[in-house]
Prior knowledge:
mainly alpha, three-stranded mixed sheet
Amino acid sequence: MNDIIHAAGWTLVHFLWQGALVGLAAATLLWLMRGARPGARYAVACAAMLASLLWPAYEFAAALQTTPRSLQALILAGGDRAFAQSELLANIDSHLPMLVAAWLACVGALALRSAFGLAWIARARRNGGRNSHWQQRLSNLAGRLGIRRAVGLRIVETLASPITAGWWRPVVLVPAALVARMPPELLEALLAHELAHVRRHDFLVNLLQNVAEILLFYHPAVWWLSRRIRQERELVADSIAAQLTGEPRRLALALSELEKMQFASHRVALAADGGDLMQRIRELMAPHQHRSNWKAAVAALGVTAACLAGYAHARVDAAKVPVARTPAVVDFKSCSKPLWPSEDLQAEHTGTVTLSFNIDKSGNVAGSRVDKTSGHTGLDQAAQAGISKCHFIPAKVRGKPVETWQQMQYVWTLE
């Protein structure tokens, strides 16, 4: 359990820079593709969101496979200087259980909110009103779009705009106010838009977005990507609906009427949350000239290559950084002052010897070496004999004792 907590904690910490890298790459690509079709931009945004989920998943799996024993060689190679550089990591490591607990609490709250939303949709499906006339018109539109599954229609009082829910048994929820007050031809255009979501299986993508928003709620790049996906999704569905009805202007008028009704009722549109209504209207009335741009494609490939190179470089650098751990602590009561060799004392030999010594998992000194001699063999050996008598509380990685190397100096002076 301790290994899982630490693996999850470091995965969350690492996603701070990983998410920023994914968001920066996505923002650059989308800017380069600003003249492309909404479907292409939608694919890029979805790919970035998927990368935001898969990257930390990979990191978590890799962290679980990294045991303290496999980290031992890295720690031994690091020496005392590397150990000093890991103080910040050790401080973060000590707070990981608290961080993971807070993350789990927030994930639980967000998951509960999503569960309530799905429960509300299920209840609206069961209790929503039926209208045979509009159900038939919806079925006819679904047939023209090539949708073979039966798509239900329910009329809901407490709703601001049409929404689509479900994948295997999709249903379109329509506000009662629209059925009562909106001209039939405009309402039909809105239904065509919702059926475009059904044909593209957007409900499944939206569920994936919700999972990312719940698990990675603390990163702004995830929320920006999710909003961008919804914006592009609405533009794609508008394009399909306009082609189906053959009148982009009719869908634009329907969106305009929908905005007026929402403003009058002081409600926020659930379905329009992914895309600004005025932006969608402008796109329908005066669409951009979408064209392929090989220069943008080359630039996009360059950005992707740069991100991959940056990630590879970060992985190499990460391999050089010692793993965060609690340091070994000496028990001063177990140590005794090293004995001055009689021959060196008579000859009045002095100097400073630098030792590296290995502390095993039990806290005993398992061996030592002279990194810098004092110039006198007797003094060097006496320092090694002195350190061998000391006992330590061993260093720990993820709460488990590990072997480690540390350094110290013995200064031999005569007063």
